[in-house]
# Entry
Amino acid sequence: MDALAAVDPQIAALIAQEDARQRATLRLIPSENYASAAVMAATGSSLTNKYSEGYAGRRYYQGQGLIDQVERLAIERACALFGAEHANVQPYSGSPANLAVYLGLLQPGDTILSLSLPHGGHLTHGWKVTISGRFFNVFQYGVRPDDHRIDMDEVARLARAHRPRLIVCGASAYPRIIDFAAFAEIAREVGALLLADIAHIAGLVAGGAHPSPVPVADVVTTTTHKTLRGPRGGMILCKAEHAKAIDGGVFPGLQGGPHNHTTAAIAVALHEAATPAFRAYAHQVVENARVLADRLASHGLDLVSGGTDNHLILLDVSKKGLSGKVVARALEGAGIVTNANSVPFDTRKPFDPSGVRLGTPAITSRGMGPDEMRRLADWMAGIIADPTDTALQARTCAEVEALCAHFPAPGL
Ligand SMILES: *Cc1c(COP(=O)(O)O)cnc(C)c1O
# Structure
């Protein structure tokens, strides 16, 4: 950081301020986390200087002896941790990982069946404005209106009616367990391939706090920076029979040179995720989310699906006559950082939706537990009761900062 400050004081100052913000606020965005100092060290290493198009033992440029060892280690650790037959650790992030799978397994115009964005799915699962929505014939399932659980009867009905080549399951805003085995059975019945996108829950799966799709899905994609707590990146796990198609989809299909510094940091994160401490972390993330959800509900707040089984909570603030943006802004004023999010059957626009999405991965990485969750819920309920009360926000912000001082953020 001294070298950076000497060359570019403006950027150095902005990073220092961002470090301070990340220390002093409660990071509740459920897709965010704190990468460890070890992961950060690998990310900031000399491996960023090397070009390595191709795969270990089959590269286009010289000088790959050590890079090959790094990538092989990352692959071995990914396969061991998740019990996968094959892993590709080169995707630049979760979105390119999904795109590489489509490219490797599908033809343009093929039919995909996936969870719709407003019901918790991800843009890259075929939403209209994205490349996946434009190049493929997409049908989407949703959650039931009464209990907000994925409607497996609808999945089966749509699968039989449209005979998709690929069924996609996995979500960005779904607080419940995903029944991967039920998806696999429907896929088998209609002759579809199954892709499970575990971007959000990979750390929970690795730590045994959510069922794994790896035994039943043809392909599993994930980011490496959410609950898995690695660097920003992506990863694809698959059955051996799909290995060639998947690798070809990533390179040369979609990407050029892999980000070797990220590959090294993914290897480090996978090493950390294989420890008993990480298993305990994954279970604590879920326990903290449950305690937080229960306490929020006890304040009369409306939780999509009534609660959570994973790391994520979706609040519906529409019955209070509020929008998600208004609430998210008020919470940020109190040092509690969340994001506005659509809720199922939302009547408001996506840019100013009815929900607020939050989760416990990052605050659990700081070592917070049930006592802190209850305090947090009480603060949140107070802020939401009157989002215009800026004096309360300022008072709460000071209390939040005092709490944060007792729970150092890893990696900073
Ligand atoms: C976050 C996410 C992605 C995309 O990851 P990026 O790294 O942001 O490209 C893909 N799928 C799901 C389900 C996600 O939650």
Summary: The two ends are 12 Å apart (CA to CA).
